[in-house]
Amino acid sequence: MLRIDFGKPEEHLERLGWERFFEIFEDSGIKFLYDPEGHMTKFVRDE
Q: pLDDT digit of tens for each residue in the chain (47 aa)?
């Protein structure tokens, strides 16, 4: 699972640096979908 934590980090999740994050992001074929007003963010498959 790849996610961005906007609050207090959960202890059971592994913290990644940005370089590793973007490696996984690019290798997974996903896009980051967001609402510019800040109401929703999520990862979606790039089809």
A: 667 777 787 888 888 888 998 898 888 888 888 888 878 888 888 77
